[in-house]
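Ticket #4471: structure output looks truncated?

Reporter: J.K.
Steps to reproduce: submitted the chain below (60 residues) through the standard prediction queue, then opened the result file.
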Amino acid sequence: MPLITIKAQVHADPQTKAVLKDAMFCATKVYNGLLWHLRKEHEETGEVDISRKNLNRILT
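Returned output as attached by the reporter:
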């Protein structure tokens, strides 16, 4: 599995930085949780359904 790294620097006031940091933290939690569910599914069935329908089911 290839890894992608994105480096960025934000130039903003402290309040905007705080909002962006919180949004990125939330996005990271959602992404990591989704990966956890997909890995668990792969371990149990040997396959992973990455259809939009299944991903939305996991996220709800």
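Triage note (M.O.): checked the attachment and the full token line is present. The CA atoms of residues 40 and 48 lie 9 Å apart.
Status: closed, working as intended.
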